[in-house]
Amino acid sequence: MQYLDMDYIEPVFRPPSEARSLILQVSNGCSYNKCTFCEMYTAPQKKFKPKPISKVEEELKQVALNMPGMSRFFLADGDAMTLSFRRLKEILECINKYFPNRERVTAYCLPRNIKNKTVEELAELRALGLAMVYVGCESGDDKVLECVQKGETFETSKDALLKLKAAGIKSSVMILNGLGGRKFSEQHAINTAKLMNDTQPEYVSTLVVSFPMGDERFRKGFNGDYEPLQQSDLFQEIRTLISNLELNNTVFRSDHASNYLVLKGDLGKDKQAMLDKIDLALNKPGAIPLRQEWQRGL
Question: In the predicted model, what is the mean pLDDT of the chain?
Answer without folding.
Answer: 94
